[in-house]
Specification:
single chain, 166 residues, alpha+beta, five-stranded mixed β-sheet, 34% helix, globular
Length: 166
């Protein structure tokens, strides 16, 4: 495996690249879609993987939220961490399934009922990307009430010669 080519990137820029298509999918389905970029943290990351991270989390939220529901994406910074949150009012995940959803090929009964197609590889990939960049991911969910996925990635530290935009 080749080492990751890391660049200093804006997590907000990477989010904004994937939002138009995902927002259109949500609106076509009748799902309200909101993006709240509170801060624009810079992180050292592989550009392609950040797009995959956002796309997998947001597309799952749209896929498993029924018409009339809501998907909200929040990007913020807390201390030395960039914090991304994808929250929905979808089908939710039972407590006994939450520990297993990051395992390859695992899909909940509710997910299979709502969307028969799916590989069960999206969330394991998300976890691998987040942890590969030195971060963490967690889920909070209640069956029938929705889910909130929150990931934290370390903010890029400025090296000599780099200027801050803040």
């Amino acid at each position: 495996m080749t080492p990751l080519k890391l660049k200093t990137l804006s997590l907000a820029d990477e989010l904004e690249k994937v939002v138009p298509l995902l927002k259109a999918q949500a609106e076509d389905k009748g799902v309200f879609f909101a993006v709240d970029v509170r801060q624009r943290p810079q992180i050292k990351a592989n550009p392609g993987q950040l797009g995959q991270l956002w796309t997998n989390l947001i597309s799952n939220a749209v896929k498993y939220t029924p018409p009339g529901g809501r998907v909200t994406i929040i990007l913020d910074k807390e201390g030395d961490w960039a914090v991304g949150t994808v929250e929905d009012t979808g089908i939710g995940i039972a407590p006994e399934d939450q520990a297993q959803i990051f395992g390859e090929f695992y899909r909940t009964v509710q997910a299979k009922e709502m969307e028969p197609r799916g590989t069960g590889l999206g969330l394991p990939l998300v976890k691998r990307i987040v942890e590969g960049h030195g971060g963490t991911i967690r889920v909070e969910s209640a069956l029938g009430q929705g889910s909130r996925f929150t990931f934290c990635l370390p903010v890029a530290t400025e090296s000599v010669g780099e200027q801050s935009n803040q």
